[in-house]
Amino acid sequence: MKKKSKVVSYNKWGYIFLIPFVVVYLVFQMIPLVTTVYNSFFENYRSGLTQIGPNFVGLKNYVTIITNGDLPTYLVNTLIMWVMGFVPQIILSLLLGAWFTDPSLRLKGQAFFKTVIYMPNLIMASAFSMLFFTLFANTGPINSLLLQLGVIKEAYQFMSHVWSVRSLVAFMNCVMWFGNTTILLMAGMMGIDPSLFEAAQVDGATATQIFYKITLPLLRPILVFVMITSLIGGLQMFDVPQILTNGTGDPMRSSMTLIMYLNKHLFSKNYGLGGALSVFMFIITGILSLIVFKFTASDKVEKKRSKNKA
Amino acid sequence: MKRKILGVLLSTTMVAGMIAGCGGNSAAPAAEAPATEEAASEETAAEETTEDTASEDAASEETTEDTASEDAAAEETTEVAADEGKVLNVYAWNEEFKSRLTDHYPGYEEVDATHGKIGDVDVVWNITPSDDNAYQNNLDETLLKQADAAADDKIDLFLVEADYALKYVDTDYTMPLADLGITDADLADQYSYTQSIVTDSNGKLKGSSWQACSAGLIYNREAAKEVLGTDDPDEVQAAVSDWSKYVETAKKVQEAGYTMCSVNDTYRVYSNNVSGKWVQDGKLVIDDNLMNWVNDSMELVEAKAENTYDLWGDDWAKGKTPDGKIFCYFGPAWFFNFCLDADQEGTIANQGGWGYCVGPQSYFWGGTWICAATGTDNASLVKDIILTMTTDKAVLKDIAQKDADCVNSKTVLAELASDDSGNLELLGGQNPYQQLAEGAEKIDLSNLSAYDQGCNEEFQNAEKNYFEGNATPEEALDMFKKAVMEKYPEVTVD
Fold first, then answer.
1. Which of A107, A201, B102, B465 could bridge B470 with an S-S bond, Cβ 3.0-4.6 Å?
2. Quick check: A252 and B167 CB within 8 A?
3. Residues B245, B248, B250, B252: is their CA dihedral positive or negative?
4. Could you give phi then psi for residue B338, rounded to 5 degrees?
């Protein structure tokens, strides 16, 4: 009898110590999620200091968002800027990760460089984009430099051209996050059994072959993790373009991301439309993550099959 | 057994800590607590009761405070009543009013960057920049909670700008000046436009300003000599007296290697001279004069005579130094003092290199109004600040001479215009008060609406795309309409 009660009481402790997580999850995740969906069915905004609503309007907010056709434009903007930043970022990180983990290179001062590449991530994104805003202003240092070197004859208006703004955003995101990605990929690479590398070397594989045939395939789970987190982070891109373009997303809103669009609705505290937009974003993020997930699941099946064959 | 006691203790602290962290308003964790441990629920119960009494106290304080302030107002005393609140909360978007109060309000002592003292009342400054609407967001949230706030946390004074004055004035959150004991006779010397802007739909005056912000063209004397052969205000005025002459001059300016100004500088001149409000019968109306701005500006941008820099940006600010090669800025009197960096070595203002003339059309820009928040617990102090800062002629004259501001008093401006006391160093000794006073009389604010700030901002943003060649005129207008719909869901656009 005594023994039994002891077991039960241990179980109880388990639940008790789970409470903080559950409460935090409920308060900061579940309740906001549910209220967002709930809010999306109401007309609810503020005009000046006058509150309008909440009046139940059914699916009107969803219809508004679908019919005005802005959502796909801003989704495409977001994805373009994400891809432009992510591709160089992952290449850079793989390269650096491979170099850092390669024992035959015997790199010196690794700890120093690992710290340095992580540094940009420590700066606030808004401060970073404020810096770029000043650097690339029409009369800013970059333009003065280019003018004095004779590369250009007239100041280039970085903020007035679609691709220069997008490139700046992508570049900033890349610089800010490649350190983080490198650290993650390095952790993955160091988890690979060194005997595999040694075996490959004994078999006469070149460094390139080792990278493509051993490192990359075994790194896949980490790569997928990096992909998904970066994708979700990319869809939520906000501070960098917001500050860089002063919240306008100009030229012609070509650098306006989904969250910047959401932010526009919060000027009038428009929780109805904002909620509906958030629900759409939730669905989009879900679908995109699912695609990436599916992609990996099928890969695992393939691997198992090939193992069975062997 | 000991271990069990330790466990109970630990989990109790954990749960109690969580509840304390969540504050008194989250009912969910408080309800969970009794289910886990008795001790925890006892603790929360105790917490709740103390909180209850505290809020009751605040409520009772509130009522006494209200009656106190009413009494004080009825007595019309200028002395700070002894039974009033000890904290004066002031909301502002920049340091301007703070420096005015520091320099000109008798008895104000500065404590640190955000605190001051008047007698034994603490003045607490809450300064939020107006960028991206941050000032108004902050003010809105606090005003909406005003009724439930503790007496010392209530806003007492807040400042508004012309662009959105109506948003606050036309609500009960702003106190009529008459309720403070300020009479029309006190304000008789002010320009009428400064009062019409802060008069609500029931005809009650709810704010007061120390500035009359008639504005004009502030030109670079050096550039004027080079381009027009003279820096005399009258002759420069003749060269820019209407928009067609202005465009002509701008092209000459461009040939001489200067840039006239930014398209955003001239925007207010056009937008102040519109024939109707932005929103009429719930519908967005784009005035013809704004389209004139678009067309004139496009012509000058194409001729490279004007740039498209955003106001207040680094690029735009370069014109304050001779190297910036800017011919002029458009601005009112506060612009002289506040934006031209006169005390900075190497600026044009520092060398007294600016001149002032009325420009193509007279207009006004900005200005700061002092409003009293309903529910203030410092009514007589608020009244005294408003009276001293906006009607006391000695103080106003002092402000004009020390800060080069165009003050809101007909007699003081007339005095300043009549002799050398109004000469401004940064204008090379020119006395602009004659023109400023004339301009202030001409200002007509009948076309102002609560939508001005959002609409003006978005219109300039959208048209920038057109000026820079990223959009056709129609696309830019569509972009503008879209932005207005986002900001003001109740407004219809076609």
1. B465
2. no
3. negative
4. -90, -25
Chain B: residue whose CA lies nearest to A6: B4
Q: For A252, which of B36, B470, B487 is closest by C-beta distance?
A: B470
Coil vs helix vs strand at B356: strand
Q: Name which of B29, B143, B314 is nearest A137 (Cβ-Cβ).
A: B314
Over the range B184-193, which residues count as b (16 or more CB within 10 Å of their CB) and which as e?
eebbebbbeb
Contact B125, B111 (CB under 8 A): no
The mean pLDDT of A29-51, rounded to a whole number, is 90
Amino acid at A114: K
Q: Tell me if A49 and B140 make a contact (CB, 8 A cut-off).
A: yes
Q: Quick check: B487 and A138 CB within 8 A? A: no
Residues 6+ apart with CB under 8 A from A45: A51, A52, A53, A268, A269, A270, A271, A272, A273, B489, B490
- Answer whether residue B55 shows pLDDT above 60: no
As a whole-number percent, the residues of chain B with pLDDT over 70 amount to 83
pLDDT in tens, A246-288: 888 888 899 999 999 999 998 888 999 999 999 999 999 999 8
Chain A positions in Cβ-Cβ contact with residue B18 (cut-off 8 Å)? 19-20, 23
Contact indicator for A238, A259 with CB cutoff of 8 Å? yes
CB A130 within 8 A of CB A172: no
User: What is the nearest CA distance from A230 to chain B, expressed in angstroms?
Assistant: 28
**Domains of chain B by start residue, with CATH:** 2-212+369-391 (3.40.190.10), 214-365+424-429+440-487 (3.40.190.10)
pTM above 0.90, yes or no: no
Residue in chain A nearest B17 by alpha carbon:
A20
Residues of chain A with Cβ-Cβ distance to B488 below 8 Å are 47, 268
CB-based contacts of A245, cutoff 8 Å, min separation 6: A159, A165, A255, A256
What pLDDT score does B170 carry? Answer: 87
Chain B residue numbers touching A157 (CB-CB < 8 A)? 468
- In tens, the pLDDT along A192-242 reads 998 998 899 899 999 889 889 888 889 988 888 898 899 999 999 999 999
d(C-alpha A271, C-alpha A257), whole Å = 18
Q: What angle do CA B123, B128, B132 make, to 5 degrees?
A: 165
* CB contact at 8 A, B287 and B459: no
Query: pLDDT value at position B47?
Result: 44
Predicted ipTM of the assembly? 0.84
Task: Tell whether the model's pLDDT for residue A10 goes beyond 80.
Answer: no
